[in-house]
Write a structure and sequence with these properties.
Number of helices: 4
Order of helices and strands: EEHEEHEEEEHHEEEEE
Bound molecules: biotinyl-5-AMP
Shape: globular
Strand content: 25-35%
Largest sheet: 8 strands, mixed
Strand order of the largest sheet: 1-2-3-4-8-7-6-5
Distance between the termini: 55 Å
Helix content: 25-40%
Radius of gyration: 17 Å
Number of strands: 13
Amino acid sequence: MRIDGWFYQYLKETESTNDAVLAFFKTTQAPSIVRAEKQTKGRGRLGRIWAYEEGNFFASFIFEIKIEDLGVFSLISGLAVAQTISEFFPSNKVQIKWPNDVLVQEKKIGGILFEKGPGDYWVMGIGINVQKTPDISQTFYEATSLHQEGVSVTVDDVFQVFVQKFNHLKTEYEKIGFEPLKKEVLDRAYNRGKRIVVKQLKKEIEGIFEDIDDDGALLIETEHGKERILAGDIFKKEEK
Ligand code: BT5
């Protein structure tokens, strides 16, 4: 089956749609999507888990990305999730926590995982809490769902809107570049202008979140000057 130019497969259950889409791609050899009703071993970055609850959204997209565009696609994917949620919800409340966590009222409602596929292909896995908020109290994020925020919508509607938003942003980027899209990313950016701590595997960097560059990197002003950051988790520096 095809949807808006993508080969499409729907699964009742799978361990991770990021793995399932790689298997599907072996048969399609073209941009493809796998969506699953149930995901039993969903993952986040750095070996973290992505919690499953019934009625939530789990899908992975595989398509070609030039390595130099990866940072921008990472942000565009978050923007597409934010725009999708905004379709059902007052948009000024939906924020992007760099690079691509999507927050409502400072709580995480959507997450994205990019993983390398064959050749120039990359897998973009999207999780959105639609009907239920998972209990992730053991971890450092608070979570929410569209349902918890008072929005009643089906996962099919969320999927349809997401594909449309993502296709549109991808085409815009390919036609006119990142500059016009960057403005919306910055307008929605959580903690912009604030003092933040960026946690990386082996270090923490503290500074003011000033900007995002044309490659999607985070620019922060630290006590040693400007730093350009390509990966990490950002936290608000708690005021004392
Ligand atoms: C992410 O990782 O946010 C990427 C999540 C990607 C999930 C999709 S679902 C479809 C596809 N198939 C997969 O196997 N994965 C992708 P990260 O930034 O590392 O955040 C992980 C952290 O988010 C966890 O440690 C928890 O604190 C929190 N978390 C886990 N599940 C959550 C949920 N359902 N809602 C909100 N927060 C969650």
